[in-house]
Design a protein that fits this description.
This protein is α+β, with helices and mostly antiparallel strands and 210 residues long. It has one domain. The protein is built from 3 helices and 10 strands. The chain has helices at 21-28, 119-127, 179-194, and strands at residues 12-20, 34-37, 45-46, 49-50, 56-62, 87-102, 133-150, 161-169, 174-175, 199-203. Strands 1, 2, 5, 6, 7, 8, 9 and 10 form an 8-stranded mixed β-sheet that branches. The protein has a two-stranded antiparallel ribbon with strand order 3-4. The protein starts with 11 loop residues before the first strand and ends in a 7-residue tail after the last strand. 33% of the residues are buried.
Length: 210
């Protein structure tokens, strides 16, 4: 997927990123623009600093750990039955556009307009093991209806990345929000991190890295 504005019709993606189902829904609806992670996305430095294992990926919704409901917006329970016969909707395609490392707890409140997690959830992630949090600004495309895939034993467990049994075509995805609105959000986030002490910023189009 080489064009930031629209995935190429012939492109297939076989990698998925596990995230709470409520967060996946918010990203797909344009209510959330960032992914907050403590780890599990590889911290090997690239040419411009930290780079995740994959820049483009499907979102793989999960309710693991979500029983505690660390979201500010209520989420409906899953429709599927047991883990053995569960099927998973794959309908949001993500592309990472900006990555920041936040090491100042006072900066967390400024991120609230861009996600639906509760302050307690964010602070808990920030302080887990050692202070700090990765923030990934992601552009989202939606596919409706979503693909439905079988949940397999290989998908289970507390892992971040899932390799899908079959690559899924991106030909029918549409942007969750328009180009102009996304560009404005991305620029606001960039300015936020540039102005935040004790943070580092990587912009994956090579502009304004810090």
């Amino acid at each position: 997927m080489s064009d930031m504005a629209e995935p190429q019709p012939g492109y297939y993606c076989s990698v998925a990123f596990k995230e709470w189902a409520g967060v996946c829904d918010a990203l797909g609806a344009g209510r959330q623009s960032i992914i907050l992670r403590k780890g599990g996305i590889s911290e090997e430095p690239g040419p411009g600093g930290f780079v995740p294992d994959h820049r483009e990926f499907w979102l793989y919704p999960t309710f693991v750990h979500q029983a505690e409901q660390g979201l500010r917006i209520p989420v409906a329970p899953p429709d599927s039955g047991s883990d053995e016969d569960a099927t998973i909707p794959i309908g949001q395609l993500a592309r990472v556009e900006l990555i920041a490392r936040v090491e100042d707890e006072s900066a967390l409140s400024a991120l609230e307009p861009y996600h639906i997690l509760t302050p307690e959830t964010v602070r808990g992630r920030f302080h887990y093991r050692r202070p700090g949090l990765w923030v990934l600004a992601v552009r989202i495309w939606r596919r409706e209806p979503p693909y439905w895939i079988a949940a397999t034993a290989e998908h289970a467990g507390c892992k971040t990345w899932v390799t899908l049994d079959e690559p899924l075509a991106t030909a029918e995805v549409l942007p969750a929000i328009g180009e102009a609105e996304w560009t404005e959000r991305l620029e606001r986030l960039r300015r936020l991190f540039v102005a935040t002490p004790a943070s580092s910023l990587t912009r994956l189009d090579g502009q304004g890295d810090r």
